[in-house]
Recover the amino acids of this structure.
């Protein structure tokens, strides 16, 4: 389950020369800014009298402090030139996402002396970090109150969250992949050996038996069914409603017990055949609780959802969509759709929303949501691998008006959809993507710095456009 908070290890650094007073001034200004942004940070005031990283003996002490406090990321603002080898040794031992930045210098003093020479120290530290093999993100030398620092720092938090939640993730797997979905074939051994990602399988038989038992004996099921009845129109049987409620509760219990990061669900064929209902609406309900549930046992889709949810600054949930068809009148718009699994909390117009049957599969089997979701800025992402190479597709756009659909959907516009389409066709990607109402491409792009073996593959904005954004453009 993704936590939006990052515990940051803050280790301001100065060199033995330059202005000690100015170093302390900027240490204070930076800490005040982080408190203003409600950042959870651990400083190094307990390490030495100055609370600054300066001497060789400080390196091990700071590393031990940060490891003991279980920081998720490290930030070493250069409050003057800094001490590059001490920083690099500490960063290597802590082995967490690292942010490199320092406040821009003012004019030299009237007598020509320099107070800090921060930029010079940043060049030195970047070189030594690379020699030590420490991956890092850099924010351009800028003022404490600048847009460059704010954008860069907040992007770093999103990137660090995404890396933290991806590495060592636990993905609940309900059933096998559908027999004809070769698109969702994965290499479980590679996920485990490269990133410590574990799959936690459960059979559909075990799940179905538990749901049946819960309907008979768990009083929470009827309570949950009434809550669903009160918030959305029902075009389903009472039996399907109780099963939907029981499935939601089952997945909550299972996720908490197994500490699951996300769930990949075999949502059609076996479940509707065995229990005569679809899991779609229940899947969306779990996703609203920050436990992404994706369709067709798409493990890579679950990891896509986890990365995007973690990288984003917003608290609204992701949605898991098919790329289905181009807009009939807008050459740069695409339908993001699925048969009914988007979170109801994202519903645009609740007056015409309902739970019903599957819009593309005949028969009286119920459990799918039917509604358009709200508009605004949207980022989509897809994690995928083939032949041992892994990449992360990312891009941003906005919602637009389009024709009505059954199922759950939103129309999505980008600057150049044919470019996206070509990238998806020739890349290792499939028709499934995760989406969120935010602009998160920069954070996803930077997260790949901290996930070994994962390549950033941006559509729009491009890598150069992301870099320009972080520089303040």
């Amino acid at each position: 389950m993704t936590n939006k908070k990052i515990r940051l290890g803050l280790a301001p650094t100065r060199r033995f020369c330059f202005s000690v007073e100015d170093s302390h001034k900027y240490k204070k200004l930076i800490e005040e800014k982080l408190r203003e942004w409600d950042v959870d940070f651990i400083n190094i005031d307990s390490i030495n009298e100055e609370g600054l990283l300066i001497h060789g003996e400080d390196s091990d002490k700071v590393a031990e402090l940060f490891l003991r406090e279980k920081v998720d990321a490290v930030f070493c603002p250069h409050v003057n030139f800094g001490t590059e080898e001490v920083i690099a040794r500490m960063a290597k031992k802590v082995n967490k996402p690292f942010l490199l930045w320092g406040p821009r210098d003012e004019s030299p003093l009237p007598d020509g002396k320099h107070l800090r020479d921060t930029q010079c120290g940043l060049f030195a530290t970047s070189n030594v970090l690379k020699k030590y093999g420490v991956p890092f993100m850099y924010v351009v030398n800028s003022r404490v109150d600048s847009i460059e620092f704010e954008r860069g720092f907040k992007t770093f938090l999103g990137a660090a969250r995404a890396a933290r939640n991806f590495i060592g993730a636990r993905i609940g797997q309900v059933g096998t992949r559908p027999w004809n979905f070769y698109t969702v074939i994965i290499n479980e051994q590679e996920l485990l050996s490269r990133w410590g990602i574990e799959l936690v399988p459960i059979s559909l038989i075990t799940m179905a038996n538990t749901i049946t038992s819960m309907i008979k004996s768990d009083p929470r099921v009827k309570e949950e069914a009434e809550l669903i009845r009160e918030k959305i129109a029902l075009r389903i049987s009472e039996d399907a409603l109780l099963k939907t409620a029981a499935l939601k509760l089952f997945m909550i219990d299972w996720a908490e017990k197994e500490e699951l990061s996300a769930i990949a669900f075999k949502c059609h064929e076996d479940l509707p055949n065995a229990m005569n209902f679809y899991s779609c609406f229940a899947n969306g309900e779990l996703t609203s609780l920050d436990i992404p549930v994706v369709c067709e046992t798409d493990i890579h889709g679950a990891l896509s959802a986890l990365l995007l949810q973690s990288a984003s600054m917003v608290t609204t949930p992701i949605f898991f969509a098919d790329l289905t068809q181009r807009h009939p009148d807008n050459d740069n718009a695409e339908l993001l759709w699925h048969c009914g699994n988007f979170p109801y909390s994202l519903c645009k117009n609740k007056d015409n929303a309902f739970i019903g049957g599957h819009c593309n599969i005949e028969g009286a089997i119920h459990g799918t949501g039917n509604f358009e979701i709200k508009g605004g800025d949207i980022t989509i992402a897809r994690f995928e691998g083939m032949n041992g190479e892994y990449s992360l597709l990312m891009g941003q756009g906005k919602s637009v008006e389009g024709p009505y659909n059954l199922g759950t959907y939103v129309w999505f516009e980008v600057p150049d959809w044919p470019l996206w389409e070509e990238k998806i066709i020739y890349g290792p990607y499939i028709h499934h993507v995760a989406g969120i109402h935010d602009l998160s491409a920069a954070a996803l792009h930077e997260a790949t710095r901290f996930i070994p073996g994962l390549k950033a593959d941006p559509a729009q904005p491009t890598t150069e456009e992301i870099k320009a954004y972080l520089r303040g453009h």
User: Anything to note?
Assistant: DSSP finds 15 helices and 19 strands in the chain.
